Amino acid sequence: MRSEPAKGKGFRGEMIAVCSAKGGVGRTVITTNLAVALSKSNIKVGVIDGSFQFGDICLALDLHPTFSMKDVAESIETLDAFALSGFLMHHSSGVKVLAGPERPEYADIITGDIIAAVCDLMLQQHDYVLADTGVGLQEKNLQIIEKADQIFVLTNLEMATMKNTKLMLETLELLGLKDKVQVVVNRSSMESVIQASDVPDILGVEIGMYIPNQFQIVSQSLNVGIPFVIGQGKTDVAKAMFRMADQLVSRREISLLKPKPHSIFHSLFSKPKLQ
After folding, report:
1. What would the mean pLDDT of 91-101 be, rounded to a whole number?
2. Domain for residue 20, yes or no?
3. What is the CA radius of gyration of the chain?
4. Are the CB atoms for 168 and 141 separated by under 8 Å?
5. Is residue 3 part of a domain?
6. What is the DSSP letter of 104?
7. Is 58 helix (H, G, I), strand (E, B) or coil?
8. What is the mean pLDDT of residues 205-228?
9. For position 188, which CATH number holds?
10. What pLDDT digit, counting tens, does each position of 4-40 carry?
11. What element of type H or E holds 57?
């Protein structure tokens, strides 16, 4: 077992944003199972349900939240690391979860400043913070992506998903985030006209990880709220998640990020000066 690192002054964990250009690609399943796989190495892991309208992180972990991101937003004026810890749900694996709002209309009160503050406080207390996001590049997703050290872009072998993923990758490159991106091909052994071996050429990027297609195991895991890395740890899909966790840990170097000259919002909305 790895020893637990001390959380001293200036400590900052590593943040991973789990994204996709299309729904139903597996963001919640990957986020929860990767979080639990990491926690098995005695690593402090936090999860933010950043799908603020229709988040399913608690469903996937069979958690019944008392508090959510809505409560955090309403307490933002007095929020510190100690106060935030009181809003987190504790999973039996050791993973701590900040639940999404219980109703979709509450997403409107969660601003960019609140997202930034929550991410910073979570990173002070955890070695890894995984954030499940909503679909695409909505403003709140971009707030999370900007904070992330790594951006996992999930795709699969369906034509529509591949087309949208390519557009998403092109947009992230335009925003100067290409170096943060890792593409994860979920259900990579599914029957499709597109083969897993075709994906690097189609998307024009190297693939960070292939997750095999064991749909029945994954679906049952989600329905009963037990991550398959716990209940089905010897399956191929679970082994793939453990490999992903090991890859993260093996190259992990926790340090404070260098300040960025501009935010991605500056890149999106600034206009060039007229000569």
Report:
1. 97
2. yes
3. 18
4. no
5. no
6. G
7. helix
8. 96
9. 3.40.50.300
10. 444 656 789 999 999 999 999 999 999 999 999 999 8
11. helix 57-60
Q: How far apart are CA 232 and CA 215, in angstroms?
A: 13
Strands, sheet with 128-133, edge to edge from the N-terminal-most edge strand: 89-90, 96-98, 45-50, 128-133, 14-20, 150-155, 181-185, 207-210
Q: Residue range 230-240: average pLDDT?
A: 96
Is 158 a domain residue? yes
Phi and psi at residue 264, to the nearest 5°: -70, -20
Residue 166 lies in a domain: yes
> Closest Cα to residue 161, out of 208, 193, 209, 197?
193
Question: What are the tokens at 18?
Answer: 């789990």
In three-state secondary structure terms, 29 is helix
Checking if the pLDDT of 2 tops 60, the result is: no
pLDDT in tens, 163-195: 999 999 999 999 999 999 999 999 999 999 999
Number of separate domains in the chain: 1
* Sign, CA torsion 103/52/210/12: negative
Cβ contacts of 216-221, under 8 Å, gap ≥ 24: 218/26, 218/29, 221/29, 221/33, 221/60
Q: The domain containing residue 30 runs over which residues?
A: 14-250
d(CA 120, CA 46): 12
Alpha helices in the chain (DSSP H): 27-39, 57-60, 69-74, 81-85, 112-125, 139-147, 159-174, 199-203, 215-224, 228-231, 236-250, 264-269
Q: Is the pLDDT of residue 267 over 80?
A: no
